[in-house]
Design a protein that fits this description.
Blueprint: H1 3-9, H2 12-30, H3 34-38, H4 69-78, E1 87-91, H5 97-102, E2 109-114, H6 117-132, H7 136-140, E3 142-145, E4 158-163, H8 168-184, E5 189-194, H9 199-204, E6 208-213, E7 223-227, H10 234-242
Helix pairs in contact: 1-2
Length: 243
């Protein structure tokens, strides 16, 4: 993909705001060795017009672009917790790069949600390849080929990853569904949001930033890690006091 075609695939706001970082990321991705090392297909971007997704939200989709290993690792470390009880969910999983990177962490479960059937198949192929090469978590990873607006979040602690996958028209109902799930069954939930174009929507829903990388001279994409406080019931407080 050329620099110009890549820039044209961005939304106007993202282009105006993040063109310098995007240009720097494009160079970094061209030097990225992940696919050469692992034999996978994750590094080639896919324009919005080529996604052909399920559901009525094609107009809110964003350019598929894979996250690099280093920023992903920094975001996981910034969560500041034992990840073993957590289900990792990648909203807008694309070709599955984040899921592959997540196999290096002790998650309970890995799930990718992607509305493009073509990208779902590529992600499944990448995961099978990782599983054959001794990554047991990859063998059990799940790809849900669905519109994120209709996705039902599983029970248990959640770490939800996003790489600017869609616009606010989709993100609002996604967050509403997530909050409803957390209110129905209170549990820890962490949001790892790379290129957080719509962070305000999470903050409005009660999520609180706990770590972030801001824009700077290194021209890397910013990111933020947020969490939603878990309500503490009077019964649990009393039980701890008695215990």
């Amino acid at each position: 993909m050329s620099l110009w075609s890549g820039l044209k695939s961005l939304g106007l706001l993202e282009l105006l705001v993040y063109a310098p970082e995007y240009s720097a990321e494009l160079i970094r991705h061209r030097l990225d060795r992940f696919d050469r090392v692992h034999g996978t297909d994750t590094n080639t971007s896919v324009a919005v017009g080529d996604l052909a997704g399920i559901g009525a939200n094609q107009q809110s989709a964003e350019l598929y672009w894979p996250i690099r290993a280093k920023p992903f690792e920094r975001m996981m470390a910034a969560s500041g917790r034992d990840l073993q009880p957590y289900t990792f969910i990648d909203l807008g999983a694309g070709k599955g790069r984040a899921l592959l990177l997540a196999t290096d962490f002790p998650f309970q479960r890995l799930i990718g949600v992607e509305f493009s059937p073509a990208l779902c198949e590529v992600a499944r192929w990448n995961l099978r390849l990782f599983a054959e090469r001794g990554r047991p978590l990859a063998a059990h990873a799940e790809i849900a080929c669905a519109d994120a607006c209709s996705y039902v979040f599983p029970e248990g602690p959640l770490l939800v990853f996003l790489f600017d996958p869609f616009g606010p028209e989709v993100l609002r109902p996604v967050i509403a569904n997530l909050v409803a799930s957390l209110e129905r069954v209170p549990r820890p939930c962490v949001i790892a949001y790379y290129l957080p174009m719509h962070e305000d929507l999470f903050r409005d829903a009660g999520f609180v930033p706990i770590a972030r990388q801001r824009r700077g001279l290194h021209l890397a994409y910013p990111w933020v890690v947020l969490q939603r406080p878990v309500p503490i019931s009077l019964d649990s407080v009393a039980a701890r006091a008695l215990g």
